[in-house]
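User: Please work through this fold.
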Amino acid sequence: MIYSRLKDLIDQKETIEGRSLSYRTIQDECGVSASTISRLANNKMDRFEKDLLNKLCLYFACSVSDILEYRPNEAESCEL
């Protein structure tokens, strides 16, 4: 299963910058809608657009692997 680490990245950026980051603030500074940020942060997204990941990587100065994490689930199979 793919999990979002966006909440961790937000927490880290808040600590480094010494300010609170709402989804609306990130929207204004990053160009990604607050609803999209919320869906990603709460693991409610099924598809990840390249443009979205690119904007978040630039904003958080990170790589895609810092945003998304794969955690194997024994109950899952490779069948689509």
Summary: The chain has one domain: 2-69. The two ends are 13 Å apart (CA to CA). The mean pLDDT is 94.
